[in-house]
Amino acid sequence: MQTEPHIQPTHIPDQQSVLCIVGPTGAGKTHLTMSLAEYAKSIGLTLELISMDSALVYRGLDIGSAKPTKAEQVAVQHHLIDILDPTESYSAARFANDAKRLCEEIRARGNIPVVVGGTMLYWRAWAHGLSSLPPANPEIRARLDEQGKEIGWPAMHSELAKVDPLTAARLQPNDSQRVQRALEVYEITGKPMSILLADSPSEDGREGSAIPEWINLVSLEPSDRSRLHQNLEKRFDEMLNSGLLEEVRALRKNPELHADLPAIRSVGYRQVWEYLDGETDLEQMRYRALAATRQLGKRQLTWLRAISGRKTFDPFNPHELKAALEYCKEGLEKQS
Fold it and tell me: Which terminus of the chain is less hemmed in, N or C, by CB atoms within 10 Å?
């Protein structure tokens, strides 16, 4: 993992605010955005979408990431999709810089940028900046990897709780990537990651933070959690029927890919990879993938609800979904 450099919050003077559409996985962000793009076209405006999604950056991760279809990408220009091989890594800091640059380039073309996605760490970096953390130490990281394989990541999570209980409390015991990073930071600096991040509390972007004036944040937040879970279950089954297993088998033919890469740790891909390794059966794989997807949605909603000033709409309520589209349309009309 690369160092996340301190990013100064971006200010875009004398410009309309940037529309950002967020929400948990499966909330209907793509549908809303494509409807908005169609409306924009009808009034002579052109939208360009900036993906705020940590899985969509990878080539070859199409089915399991619910990547916009080729037809959708032809109809509306998308950015930050298929920009990396799955052997590479992407960071919140890189997203923040890319998003800032793309907003400027899109406006220079006379078009309107819309940021859409649910990777909230990317949101924090773009909107508020990130506190500086030390660069990765290969020796410490390799040792932690070996220790994690030996005693298991829940046990490593317990070790983290002894030195950094605040960070441990917000991480899942099996989140090996983040648990490893938190332990690594503690070993390098002698300070808990929670303390280092708290050095700039106004830039945290989680604890009731306000939205920067240059962002118009629209959040799709389903009120019916059980319905969301049903939709996610249906979507994952459709992914399986559409060839998710075959997609991961194709990825596994690349000898440089392995289970510890950020791309393969993506929800769904990690569980299918374990299944193809023989660690689980098909039923267990499906159960674990759905559980991980639900946990992801829960974390996204928790993060969103801590952001004050966001415009919230329930995508499962037809009247509110229509209101969300109308609200976004009004924002576009102000720029026409």
Answer: C
pLDDT band for position 113 (50/70/90)?
very high
- Which residues, in sequence order, are CB contacts of 73 under 8 Å at separation 6+? 81
The model's pLDDT over 203-233, given as tens digits with 9 standing for 90+, comes to: 444 445 678 999 999 999 999 999 999 999 9
Q: CB of 130 within 8 A of CB of 185?
A: no
Dmax (CA) of the chain = 60
Structure token digits, residue 261: 């890469």
Q: Is residue 88 domain-shared with residue 165, that is, in the same domain?
A: no
The number of C-alpha atoms within 13 Å of 26 and in the hemisphere containing its C-beta is 26
CATH number, domain of 286, equals 1.10.287.890
Handedness of CA 234, 227, 32, 205 (dihedral sign): negative
For the segment 152-200, what is each residue's pLDDT rounded down to a tens digit? Answer: 999 999 999 999 998 998 888 988 988 999 999 999 999 998 887 764 4
**Domain interval for residue 280:** 227-296
Instruction: Estimate the share of the chain in helix, then strand, then coil, as percent rounded to the nearest 5.
Output: 50, 10, 40
- The reply to whether the predicted model has a pTM over 0.90 is no
For 62, half-sphere exposure in the C-beta direction (CA atoms, 13 angstrom radius) is 12
Looking at the fold, whether 162 and 281 belong to one and the same domain comes out as no
78 and 190 share a domain? no
